[in-house]
Amino acid sequence: MVNANAIRKRHIYISVPLPNVKVILLLVGEIVLFAVIVVITMLTISEHKMAMNRPYRAAVVIGIICDVFNVIMYSSPLFIVRDVIRTKSVKYMPFHILLANFMNGCCWTAYALIGKIDYFILISNGLGAFFGLVQLIVYGKYRKTTPKDDDHSNKATNEVQLSNV
């Protein structure tokens, strides 16, 4: 027979994690920054024809802004390289992300060179391919010096073991 008081005292709580406030603020900041750039570009730059394979000055300004942010995106993993060289461990440099970063830069660089050269795509993605290559070289140099996490023999466990009594 089941005790009714024991059932009443047990509550099942389903916890749904709330989104991190910092992430939401960063996302809102990104959207606001994007809107500000679009509004300022549309209101302040006249639509006169210009060189550089672009018919309008606004396209050149937006292209430069996009190049700056693209180079920042490609170069951000380079901050980890200093720690990798210091610790001689690639624990926080995931290989698949490094390879995807390098291949993405190479593909877009090749695309920029096909037909009429697009300097906005070529510059930022060419730098991205170079940064990705540097990261892959550092990964290749220090990958064998990183200790494996698969060895759990010397770690304490939370398992309860039965004794042989």
Short description:
By secondary structure, the protein is an all-alpha fold.
Describe the fold and architecture.
The protein is mainly alpha-helical and 165 residues long. The chain has six helices and no strands. It has helices at residues 4-9, 21-44, 57-75, 78-87, 95-113, 119-142. α3 (57-75) packs parallel to α6 and α5 (95-113) runs antiparallel to α6. The longest helix is centred in the first third of the chain and has 24 residues, at 21-44. The radius of gyration is 26 Å and the shape is flat. The mean pLDDT is 79.
- Global geometry: flat
Distance between the termini: 33 Å
Which sequence of SSEs, written as H and E, runs from N to C? Answer: HHHHHH
Uncertain spans: none
- State the helicity in percent bands: 55-70%
Q: How many H/I helices? A: 6
Percent in strands: under 5%
The profile of the biggest β sheet is: none
Defining traits:
single chain, mainly alpha, 6 helices, 165 residues
Set out the fold topology.
Elements (H helix, E strand, L loop, with lengths): L3 H6 L11 H24 L12 H19 L2 H10 L7 H19 L5 H24 L23
Helix pairs in contact: 3-6, 4-6, 5-6
